[in-house]
Amino acid sequence: MIGIIGGTGLTSLPGLGIESRESCATPYGEPSDRLLRGRFAGAPVIFLARHGGRHVITPHRVNYRANLWALHSVGVRRIVAVNAVGGIARDLAPGELAIPAQIIDYTYGRAHTYFDEGERVEHVDFTHPFIRDRLLDGLDMLDPERRAIARAHPDEPTRLERHGTQMAGLIAGRGGPGGIHGVVPASRILPIRVAGWQPSAEGGFAVYGRTDQLLAGIERAVDPDADGDVLDAARIAVVGVTEPFASFPDSG
Questions:
Q1: CB atoms within 10 A of CB 26
Q2: Domain 1-126 has CATH 3.40.50.1580
Q3: Is the pTM of this model over 0.70?
Q4: Which of 65, 77, 171, 180 has CA atoms 20 to 30 A from the CA of 110?
Q5: What would you measure as the largest C-alpha separation in the chain, in angstroms?
Q6: CA 84 to CA 65: how far, in whole Å?
C-alpha cells in the first residue's frame, strides 16, 4: 500500500476517489488529519494532509511520528511525501518536481525519532549504506533498453518485483554493524535482471524468468559489453533464483 503525504499546496489530492475517512489513534497522539483511503490513478492509496485538512498546523508542530505510525498501522509500506520548498539551483525553477537521491536532516525543535527512550542508540541510514558505490548500472534481459531495476506490476504499481539487495550486501558490503564486511568488499556489483513481470498463462502478469533469459544473463556476465572480449567478465556470478522460472508458481 502506498501512502501520500501532502504538504503546502497539496492539502487535498485532485483525482483521488475517496472511499473512506479514517481516524487513527497512535501512541504518539493524533495524526495531522483523518486518513483518506481511496484510489488514485487506479491504485489503492491512503492520503494524509501534513498540515491538516484546513492547513492550520505549522511545520514545527506537525506530529510526524503520529503521522508515520498511523499510516504504517493501516498497511502503508511506501510513502510519497510532497514538500513545497525553496531552491538555490538555477535548473530547478518554480513548479519543477524534484526527487532527491540523498537528504540531510537539518530539522530541529520537534520530536522526530521513535528511539528517544530505547535501551540503546539506534541509527537509521536513508540509503542502502553497505553497498553504496558498489553497484554498476546493470543489464536487463527482459527489457534490454532499460536498466536492471525492480519493476512495478503493469496494472498494480504498488506490487514490485523483489531485488537482491541482501545478497549484494553479503557479497560486496562493507562497513556493516560491528565492522562486518561482505566476502569480497572491494568488488563491484553488476545487476542482471533475468526474471520479472511477464504475461502469464492465465491472461494476467506473473513474476518469472524463462530459461533462455537466465542463460542470456549468464552469457552477459561472461561478456558484459557483448563485444566478444571476456577480459571484462564477472569474477563471481551469483544466481539468486528467488523468483519462479518457467511456469512454476511462486511458493513464497
A1: 17
A2: yes
A3: no
A4: 77
A5: 64
A6: 20
The continuous run of DSSP H or E covering 64 comes out as helix 64-73
Rounded-to-integer distance, Cα 228 and Cα 218, Å: 14
Supply 224's cell numbers. 558484459
Cβ atoms within 10 Å, residue 194: 25
Q: Contact at 8 Å (CB) between 27 and 69?
A: yes
Q: Which amino acid belongs to residue 87?
A: G
- Given a contact cutoff of 8 angstroms between Cβ atoms, the answer to whether 220 and 139 are in contact is yes
What's the one-letter identity of residue 77? R
Question: Nearest to residue 160, comparing CAs of 170, 149, 172?
Answer: 149
The tens digit of pLDDT for each residue in 19-49 reads: 999 999 898 999 999 999 999 888 899 999 9
Separation CA 39–CA 18 (nearest Å) = 7
Domain ranges of the chain: 1-126, 129-232
At residue 160, what are phi and psi to the nearest 5 degrees? -105, 150
| Tally of residues, the chain | 252
Q: How would you class 88 by CB atoms within 10 Å of its CB: exposed for 0-12, middle for 13-18, buried for 19 or more?
A: exposed
The C-alpha cell that represents 117 in the structure block: 527512550
- State the Cα–Cα distance between residues 233 and 230, nearest whole angstrom: 5
How far apart, in whole angstroms, are the C-alpha atoms of residue 220 and residue 140?
10
